[in-house]
Amino acid sequence: MDLASDLVLYSARAADAVAALPKQLFIGGEWVDGSAGATYDVLDPATGSVICAVADARAEDGLRAIRAAHEAQRSFAATSPRERADILMAAFRLLHENIDRLALIMTLEMGKPLAESRDEIAYAAEFFRHFAQEATRIEGGYQTAPNGASRLLVMKQPVGPSVLITPWNFPMAMGTRKIGPAIAAGCASVVKPAPQTPLSMLALAEILVEAGLPRGAVNVVTTTDAGGVTEQVIDSGLARKLSFTGSTAVGRILLGQCARQVMRTSMELGGNAAFLVFADADIDRAVEGALAAKMRNGGEACTAANRLYVHTDVIEEFSAKLAEAMAALPVGNGLADGVRLGPLIDAAAREKVHGLVSDAVDQGAEVLTGGEPLAGEGFFYPPTVLTEVPATARLMREEIFGPVAPIISFSTEQEAIAAANDTEFGLVGYVYTRDLDQALRVAEALETGMVGLNQGVVSNPAAPFGGVKASGLGREGGNTGLDEYLEIKYVGIAVS
Ligand code: ADP
C-alpha cells in the first residue's frame, strides 16, 4: 500500500473508532452530560482539525464525581484482593484484544505514530498485570514490643478516594499507572485526563466496566477547566489522596491546595535529563540510546534526554552519527505507515520548542539538522540536533518537550557530574560508559530518582519510577507504587 492510501484507510478506521466512543462524563457507573451541558472540541494535532466534541465538566461535576467515589469507597475497599486482581487482569486482556482500535484513537488525538501508540497500550496494560499480581500480596506485620508487654500489629488499608490527574503525552499509560494501584489497593478514584487527550481515557473507562469494575470505583471527568474543577474537588474534603503527573508549575499549585486538607500526594513532575557519553563508551550504542532517550514519544516525555554531554574525544563522531540518525526519521501523520515522528501536541507546544531553539541559535549554537518548524497543516517540528550550545541557553534549564537534542562537550567526570546536577530537576540521568567503576560512581553521584546505565529507556512497570528535587515526590510502579495508595495502621495489643 502506498503512503497516501494507508493514511486514508487508517483515518477512516480511526474516525469509526472515535464515533463509537462515549463522549460524556463517567460518574457513579453512568455516562452523563456535564451539568452545564457544555462540550469542547478535541483536535487532531496532525491536521489541526476537530475530531469530535466531549463533555466539558464544571466544578459541580467534579464534586458529583468525588461524591460518587466517596460513596463507593467503603464497599470497594471491602472487595477481596482476588476480586480486584481479577478486574485488573480482565482489563489487561481487553487492552490487548482492543489494541488496534485503541492505537488508532490515541494516534488521532495525540499524534504519535501508530507503532508507538501500540507500544504505549501494551505498556499501559502491563501496569494492570503488575498491580493485579501485587493486589494479593499486601502485607502487614506482627511483632513483640521490645519490653514484651504488648504486641504490635501493623496493617495496610486503602488511603481512600483518590484524585488522579494525567497528562496528554502518554494518555493511556499515565492513567493505568495510577488506576492500577488504586484498584489494587481498594481506592475509588476520580480521573481527570488532560483536555487534549480525553478519548483514550474514555475508552479505558469502557474497558474497566467490561472488566467488571463496580459502580463508582473509577469516575472520569473531562474538562477544560482543570484548575476550577480540581480545586473544588480537593477542598471538598472527600478526597484523601492526589496523584498528579504534569508540569512542576502545576504540581506546586496542587501541593499547596492539598496542604489545606493534609492530603497524601504523589507528584511526577518535570525533568531535565542529562545524557552522559564518556570517552570509552560504545558510540553506536550511545547513539541508539540517545535516539531512544530523545525521540521516544517525539521528545514529549519527562524522561526525554534534554542535555547531551559528550566527552571531547568522541563528540565529533557522536554528533555526526546522531544527526544522521535523527535526520533519517520519517516525519508525518502518525496514522501513515513508516512514520517515526508525528506532530507536537499543539501550536503552543511548537512555538515553545522553536522559541528554545531560536534562543540557543541566537546565543551561538550550531544547527546540525532541523531547526525550523515544518510548513503546512498540523504542528510538526523536525528532528533537530544542536552543537556548541552555550550554558546560558534557555533549553539547558527548561524542559524542551520536543525532538531537539542539544549537545555539549565535557573533559572530566567531575565536570560532567556537576553539569548534569546543575538543574532544579532530578528525574532521570543516562550514562554511557564501559568502565564499571565509573558507571557506579556516576550513577551514585547523579541527583536523580532514576539512572539509565547504557540504556536510553528506564520506564518499566516493575520499577519505582519517580524523581527528586523539583521532579516530584513518591514513586509509581514497582511494589512502592502500591504503597502510595495504602495507609499504615498500627494496633497495640496488651498482653497480660
Ligand atoms: P502540560 O503543560 O504538559 O499540559 P500541565 O501540568 O499543564 O502540563 O498539565 C498536566 C495535567 O494537569 C493536565 O491534566 C492538565 O489539565 C492538569 N492541570 C493543569 N492546570 C491544573 C490546575 N491548576 N489544577 C489541576 N490540574 C491542572
What is the secondary structure topology, with strand pairs?
Layout lengths: L2 H17 L5 E3 L2 E3 L6 E5 L6 E6 L3 H20 L2 H17 L1 H12 L3 H22 L5 E4 L5 E9 L3 E4 L7 H13 L3 E4 L6 H12 L7 E3 L5 H10 L5 E5 L2 H14 L2 E5 L4 E5 L5 H13 L9 E7 L3 H13 L19 H16 L3 E4 L14 E4 L16 E7 L2 H9 L3 E2 L1 E5 L3 H10 L4 E4 L14 E2 L2 E2 L6 H4 L2 E9 L2
Parallel strand pairs: 7-8, 7-10, 8-9, 10-11, 12-13, 12-18, 13-16, 15-16, 18-19
Antiparallel strand pairs: 1-2, 3-4, 5-6, 6-22, 11-21, 14-15, 17-20
Strand order of the largest sheet: 14-15-16-13-12-18-19
Helix content: 40-55%
Major beta-sheet overview: 7 strands, mixed
Shape assignment:
globular
Stretches with pLDDT under 50, minimum 5 residues:
none
Strand proportion: 15-25%
Q: Give me the CATH architecture of the largest domain, please.
A: 3-Layer(aba) Sandwich
Report the end-to-end length measured between terminal Cα atoms.
81 Å
The overall pLDDT average reads: 97
The H-level CATH homologous superfamily of the largest domain, spelled out, is Aldehyde Dehydrogenase, Chain A, domain 1
Total number of distinct structural domains:
2
Q: Briefly note the CATH topology name of the largest domain.
A: Aldehyde Dehydrogenase, Chain A, domain 1
Overall structural class, as computed from helix and strand content, comes to alpha/beta
Distinct ligand kinds: adenosine-5'-diphosphate
Radius of gyration from CA coordinates: 23 Å
Total beta-strand segments: 22
Number of helical elements: 15
| CATH C-level of the largest domain | Alpha Beta
